[in-house]
């Protein structure tokens, strides 16, 4: 039986990729949503994923798809923190 393609925005992750250590405490709706997303990822891709790795890739995917951020980066315009 062929598996249907994932409908999630986050593609299946390359586990050979280096990861960055990230400490994060989520509360309330964000914690519930991340747990539900983790379960959806596991159902779609047929393998478990560590919460830390999932969160890292969600952040990376968000930054990559943020057109305003990418335009700012390409223009060489500094971020507010760099001013």
| Quaternary organisation of the protein chains | single chain
Q: Report the major sheet.
A: none
SSE string = HHH
Strand elements, count:
0
Mean pLDDT: 83
The proportion of strand residues reads under 5%
Count of helical segments? 3
Q: What is the overall shape?
A: globular
Radius of gyration, taken over Cα atoms and rounded to an integer in Å: 16 Å
The helix content is 40-55%
> What separation lies between the terminal Cα atoms?
56 Å
Question: If you had to describe this structure to a student in words, what would you say it looks like?
Answer:
This protein is mainly α and 83 residues long. The protein has a domain at 50-74. Helix content is 51%, strand content 0%. The chain starts with 27 loop residues before the first helix and ends in an 8-residue tail after the last helix.
Topology:
Elements lengths: L27 H18 L5 H15 L1 H9 L8
At a glance:
The chain has 83 residues and is mainly alpha-helical.
List keywords for this structure.
mainly alpha, 83 residues
């Amino acid at each position: 039986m062929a598996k249907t393609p994932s409908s999630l925005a986050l593609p299946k992750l390359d586990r050979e990729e280096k990861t960055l250590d990230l400490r994060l405490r989520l509360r309330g709706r964000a914690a519930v949503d991340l747990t539900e997303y983790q379960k959806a990822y596991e159902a779609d891709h047929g393998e478990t994923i560590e919460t830390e790795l999932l969160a890292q890739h969600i952040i990376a995917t968000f930054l990559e798809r943020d057109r305003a951020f990418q335009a700012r980066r390409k223009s060489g315009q500094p971020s507010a923190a760099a001013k």
